[in-house]
Amino acid sequence: MSTLIIIDQPPYGSWEGREALDMAFSLAAFDQPVSLLFCGAGVNWLRKGQDAAKVHQKSIERNLSAAPIFGVEALLADSHACDQYGLVETELLDQATITDFGPELTARFDHVAFAG
Amino acid sequence: MISFKTLHILNKPPDHSRFRLCLSAIGPEDGLLLTENGVLAVTRRLGLNPERCFALSPDLEARGLSSQFSKEQTVSFDGMVGLTASAENVISW
């Protein structure tokens, strides 16, 4: 039973994305196959060099670096959104994979869910 | 009754980024059900197969949009249950 959790909200502005991350880590911790897909403004989660100390939050980059340890299968970045936000592969976190969003992608999963 | 690979339930208005994301995820064997603010899309041309596009009638009525959408494609809450049961998968956007 595989799950795809989609994050389409930008980082730091709201808690919805963090809740999505908690959902993904919880599933992975219980050995449920789960992947994360970042779309729209959500691709900004995957940008290297985040330092959130001055907005008094934990760095999402550090949070995401724990994804493989928890067993999250893939961090997927929508290619169209990467183009929109000027992200090339070398600027993305090393664990991230660029992919094309569409029916073929969502069909690979039993469940597709959002937080918020 | 027509069956779907995935039924996409969309409650976001047409200007919402997730609305566009949803449209780009609809495959040829999929269906779309508009609910809540999603029914505002009936005022636009979406270019979707009308046999596979539905809207929830209480939400259309609440917004005064019933006359803008074909009766055959309008579903009640019971009809919504039927649509979800006829789909292999459901994605709530």
From TrEMBL, chain A:
Family: Belongs to the DsrF/TusC family.
Protein name, UniProt field: Sulfur reduction protein DsrE
Organism: Marinobacter panjinensis
Automatic annotation (TrEMBL), chain B:
Gene Ontology CC: one annotated term: sulfurtransferase complex
One Pfam entry name: DsrH
Statement: the UniProt record of this protein carries the keyword Transferase: yes
A single GO BP: tRNA wobble position uridine thiolation
Name of the protein: Sulfurtransferase complex subunit TusB
Keyword annotations of the record: Transferase
Superkingdom in the source lineage: Bacteria
Gene Ontology molecular function: transferase activity
